From TrEMBL:
Keywords: ATP-binding, Kinase, Membrane, Nucleotide-binding, Transferase, Transmembrane, Transmembrane helix
A UniProt-annotated Pfam family: CoaE
UniProt similarity note: Belongs to the CoaE family.
HAMAP family assigned to the protein according to its UniProt record, in alphabetical order: Dephospho_CoA_kinase
Segments traversing the membrane: 203-224
GO terms, molecular function: ATP binding; dephospho-CoA kinase activity
The protein's name in its UniProt record: Dephospho-CoA kinase domain-containing protein
Gene3D superfamilies named among the record's database cross-references: P-loop containing nucleotide triphosphate hydrolases
Length: 232
């Protein structure tokens, strides 16, 4: 099995593309969904978050107020580092555990959505192919303002904190332009799915594993044979 990394910028349409892969019966891992599970009330990460940031980052029902938390860490480097230290290792561990589950289930490949794939660099080594989702600058700004109820000033600041889309595109194997209608995005995504389905990487990997297994088996068998001959 190989892993396809899906990334992009804030509000460029990563979730839309991920849903298209899911609709095409491709196994997907959504980093945002994993992050929510990692911070569910009562978990170790949730307790550490509450102890460090206080009750102000929680809703009355105990769930994490992610918008409030984002406001707190955005302009405070130390608090942002603390948040990352609490969440990132657990999120990455959970995502890799899910990937292993899919591996043993016999999937040829999976799509893993990682918003900060290039920024953190922690998951890059596991990605066989990378897809970046883009859209026009004005669309990204409008979508982010609408989605998170941000002012234009705040939205621009948030976008500027991520790696420019041009740099992500330059380091990607595929690009999906989500500037148009949904039909266009679906068509681009399904074209990539056809390419991924044709990939021979899985078979090369299986052949290598088989050769390795046979080598080990032959080596063990040879050792046992020598021991028997020496005894007799």
């Amino acid at each position: 099995m190989f892993i396809v990394g899906l990334t992009g910028g804030l509000a460029t349409g990563k979730s839309t593309v991920l849903s298209i892969f899911r609709d095409n019966n491709i196994a997907v891992i959504d980093a945002d969904e994993v992050a929510r599970k990692v911070l569910e009330p009562g978990t170790k990460a949730w307790k550490e978050l509450r102890d460090y940031f206080g009750e102000e980052v929680l809703y009355p029902d105990g769930k994490v107020n992610r918008l409030k938390l984002g406001e707190i860490v955005f302009d405070d480097i130390e608090k942002r580092r603390k948040l990352n230290a609490i969440t990132h290792p657990r999120i990455q561990k959970a995502m890799m555990s899910m990937a292993m589950m899919y591996f043993f289930s016999g999937h040829k490949y999976i799509v893993m959505e990682v918003p900060l794939l290039f920024e953190t660099g922690k998951m890059l080594a596991f990605m066989h192919k990378i897809i970046t989702v883009i859209c026009e600058d004005h669309q990204q700004l409008e979508r982010l303002c609408k989605r998170n109820d941000f002012s234009e000033v705040v939205a621009r600041k948030r976008i500027s904190c991520q790696m420019p889309l041009e740099q992500k595109v330059a380091r990607s194997h595929f690009v999906i332009d989500n500037s148009g209608n949904i039909e266009s995005t679906v068509k681009q995504t399904e074209s990539i799915i056809k390419v991924l389905h044709r990939s021979k990487f899985t078979w090369y990997f299986r052949v290598i594993l088989l050769i390795g297994f046979l080598s080990v088996a032959f080596g063990v068998g040879h050792i046992i044979s020598n021991l028997i001959n020496n005894v007799t």
